[in-house]
Structure to design on (81 residues):
């Protein structure tokens, strides 16, 4: 684990996930809150481990990644049906 990860502000992950989930819920893009939160925590945690510390940037990138994930999931489900 890097030194940068150890020096991350303790609420960075919580605040970034909170911003992202709030946006996704308000825009109606979150189907399953638990699944969405798990995706965001994993995604944002990975970016923090890489050294990113800007909570708005973390939230925006996680939202974009979630949208790509959701679009890919929709395509997969349409192929199965």
């Amino acid at each position: 684990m890097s030194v940068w990860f150890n020096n991350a502000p303790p609420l960075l992950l919580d605040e970034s996930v909170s911003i992202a989930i709030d946006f996704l819920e308000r825009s109606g893009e979150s189907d399953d809150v638990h699944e969405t939160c798990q995706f965001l925590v994993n995604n944002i945690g990975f970016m923090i481990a890489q050294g990113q510390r800007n909570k708005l940037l973390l939230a925006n990138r996680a939202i974009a990644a979630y949208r790509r994930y959701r679009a890919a999931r929709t395509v997969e489900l349409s192929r199965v049906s």
About this structure: The chain has one domain: 3-80. The longest helix spans residues 55-80.
